[in-house]
Structures are given as structure tokens and as C-alpha cells.
Design a protein that fits this description.
Length: about 270
């Protein structure tokens, strides 16, 4: 293999293109706290907020121009009290990936709790989009966005501070846990990680949303399954299903020219 082939980032042969589909809801503090590890809690002076975000990553240099899809769940306004310096950000509760390689590197290098799921490209029918997550054909999440309208890029949420934390605006909190081999209940690593937001103005090149009068057309379903149906994911899906989704705060479909690889994630404990 030549040195050229090993250095896709520097050759500019491929450019990261990311399309994000996010829906954000108010939730319940106690329910969100119940899925957080010890030493993490939602800020009770702010709204309880949870975001479900689908990403379609394309033209990735490290995959020689290939791509994959993700579906992440983030708890906003989380404060970490385990560290000497308090950190506040969005806690990555889980990140589903549709491809093994980024799951492996994400777990080993970044310390993220990544899981595999079938995440087909979104089904687009006119102004409607449908995204699904399944395990060997057993669907456990479905997001339907209807009545999407184009908006000026300048109005994209990525360009404006939210009233709640957001992964790419205020940073990602996570907890890395590595169990000890042959010693159930013991661990080799258990510490906080922090991924700061990427610098500079977000390179948004397209933005769509659903008008406030049409928010009833947005539908997110989480289907609780049995162990027989989802033997390795049933408890994760049950936890996600338990999170109340009250008021829909934001619907955003944003296309980015470039995306962070989150390599700035670091151990802070």
C-alpha cells in the first residue's frame, strides 16, 4: 500500500459530507437521571431535554470515500461531578452504527458505547423522510418526518445557540467502562471522557425543518422488544422507551460540508 493511499485526509481526495436528522423533546429529570452513570445528573435548573439524531456520513477519507449511518441518543444539560473541574454538556447515552469498523475504532480509540444496528438510508418520498433502526430485521426505532420545507441556511439551528446543550455546540460527555476479563463486576477502566465542540462556524450547506403548525406530522416510535426478539439490545431499547417525550422542541435536517471525527475526545478523570 502506498503512502498516498494511507493519507486520504491530507490528499483532499474525499470530503466528509454529513446529513443530520435531529428531533429534540422535553423529558423528565428523574427518567433521564435513571439512565446516567453515577456522578452524572441533569441540571435541575434547566429543562430536561433528550435528542434523537440520525446521521448519514458520506465520502469519509478513512474509509476511502465510503460511508455509514448512525443513530445517537443524547441527554442535554448534564453535569459531571466526578471530575475536579465540573463539565456540562450533552451525554451520549448510546450511539448505534451501521458498520463494524467505526464501532471498533469508536470503542477502542474514542471510548464511546457504540452498538450495531441496521440503519438503512432514509426513505425519501417528496417532502417526507422515514428512518428506521433494526436488528436482524426486528425494527425497534422509527422516525417519520413529514412536510419538510427548505429554509435559509442562515436559520439552521447549528448557527444559533440553543437553550439546552447540544453535542456539536457545547460538547459531548461520556463514560468509558472496560470490564476486567474473567472477573464479573470488576473493571480495568471507568472514567469520564469529554469531547469539546469543533472550532469555527458549522459548514451547513442545506437546512430543512417542519413548520410549527405541522409538528404533529413528526413521529418517533420506540418499540419495546423481548429478549427473544432483541437478545443483545432489549434492555437498551427498554431504557430508551422509558424516556418521556413531551414537547417537541426542534426538528432539523441539516447537510454539512465536513464533519468532526471526534478525535478530540479525551479522558478528563
Amino acid at each position: 500500500m502506498t503512502s498516498f493511499e494511507l493519507s486520504f485526509e491530507s490528499t483532499k481526495r474525499f470530503h466528509r459530507v454529513a446529513v443530520g436528522f435531529g428531533v429534540t423533546y422535553t423529558s423528565d429529570h428523574s427518567a433521564l437521571d435513571a439512565i446516567l452513570p453515577d456522578g452524572y445528573a441533569t441540571d435541575k435548573s434547566k429543562d430536561a431535554v433528550v435528542m434523537f439524531e440520525v446521521m448519514e456520513l458520506r465520502k469519509l477519507p478513512w474509509l476511502r470515500g465510503r460511508g455509514y449511518n448512525t443513530w445517537g441518543v443524547y441527554v442535554a444539560n448534564v453535569v459531571c461531578s466526578r471530575t475536579k473541574k465540573p463539565y456540562t454538556g450533552s451525554y451520549m447515552a448510546v450511539l448505534f452504527d451501521s458498520f463494524t469498523d467505526p464501532i471498533t475504532t469508536g470503542r477502542e480509540e474514542l471510548g464511546f458505547s457504540k452498538l450495531w444496528a441496521e440503519l438503512p438510508d432514509g426513505l425519501i418520498e417528496g417532502t417526507n423522510r422515514t428512518h428506521t433502526a433494526s436488528w436482524f430485521g426486528e425494527e425497534f426505532m422509527r422516525l417519520e418526518l413529514s412536510g419538510l420545507v427548505d429554509k435559509p441556511v442562515e436559520e439552521a439551528p447549528a448557527h444559533h445557540p440553543r437553550a439546552w446543550t447540544h453535542p456539536t455546540q457545547t460538547g459531548i460527555l461520556h463514560h468509558r467502562y472496560v470490564p476486567t476479563v474473567g472477573q464479573p463486576g470488576q473493571h480495568d477502566a471507568s472514567y469520564t471522557t469529554w469531547c469539546p465542540p469543533p472550532p469555527g462556524k458549522p459548514p451547513v450547506i442545506a437546512y430543512q425543518t417542519v413548520e410549527k403548525t405541522d409538528l404533529s406530522k413528526v413521529k418517533l416510535d420506540i418499540f419495546e422488544k423481548s429478549w427473544e426478539e432483541l437478545p443483545t439490545l432489549w434492555n437498551v431499547v427498554k431504557g430508551l422507551k422509558s424516556l418521556p417525550r413531551k414537547e417537541l422542541l426542534e426538528v432539523a435536517v441539516q447537510t454539512f460540508r465536513g464533519a468532526s471525527d471526534l478525535i478530540t475526545n479525551q479522558k478528563v478523570e
